[in-house]
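Page 42, continued from yesterday. The earlier attempt failed because a stray header line got pasted into the input along with the sequence. Redoing it now with the clean sequence only.
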Amino acid sequence: MFVLLSAKLCGKPGESTYRAASLVELLHTATLVHDDVVDDSMERRGFFSVNAIWKNKVAVLVGDYLLSRGLLLATEHKEFMHLHILSEAVKLMSEGELLQIEKTRKLNLDEDLYFDIIRKKTASLIASACAVGAYSTTNNEEITEKMRIFGEKVGIAFQIKDDLLDYGNGGIGKPTKNDIKEKKLTLPLIHAINKADKALRKKMVSIVLNNNQDIAKVDFVLKKVKELGGMEYAEQKMIEYRNESIAILHGFPDSPERRALEELVNFTTNRPY
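This time it went through. C-alpha cells are written below.
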C-alpha cells in the first residue's frame, strides 16, 4: 500500500511500480523468515513459522531464496535504483537488529540510541517502500528523498505505537509484557527509568535484566512506567512524528492518493492491535 499510494501520489503507476511493490514484499517476507530464526519464534501472524515446521536450516535458506529472488527481479529489468533503495533498507534493518541486541545486554537507556535503533530496524522498510514507489513514477531523486523521509517518520510513529500497545495502552485489555520479558528498549520504559530516583531506577533496571519472567515484578515495572509518565511521553512523541509525516504529505496537491496515505498514517497511530 505504501509503494502503490506513494507512486500514485507522484505520478502514473506502471510495470516498474508493480515490480517495486513485489520487490518490497519479497524482501520484507525474507526478513520476517530470518527474524523468526533470530527470535526463536514459533508463530507468525497466527500460524506456525517456517522454522517451527522445517527448523532453522530450511528457514535460513528460504529467507535467502526470497531475498535473492527479489534482487533478481530488479536486476533482470535493470532497475538499479530500486535495488539500491531496498538494499539500503536491508542493510539498515540488519544494523538496527544488531545494535538492539548489543545494547539490550546492558540495558543502555539512551533515548537517542532508541530512535537510532527504530529508525534502522523498523522505519527503514516503510521509508524504502515510499521512496521506491515515488521513484518508479518520477525518476526524480528529490521527490524520492522527500517520500523516504515521510516513510521514515511514519515508521517511527508505528514503532512507538507498538511500544504503547505492549503496555495495554488505549483500553485494549491487559498488557502483553513481551517487550520487558525480552529486555527490549522501549520509549515508555526509557523515559520512566530516566525520570525515576536512583534507588527506583536501580530496582527497575535489575528487574528488567534479571527478573523479567517474574510476573509480579514485571507488573511492578509496568505500574511505575505509567506512574512516571512514560506512556504519555511516548504518545506525545508518536503524535509529533505522525504530524510531521502528514505535513510532508500536505506539500503535495490534494488528491485521493494523498488522502488515502493520510488515512494510512492515522491508522498506524490509532490501531488497536
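Notes: Residues 2-259 form a domain with the Farnesyl Diphosphate Synthase fold (CATH 1.10.600.10).
Reminder to self: strip header lines before submitting.
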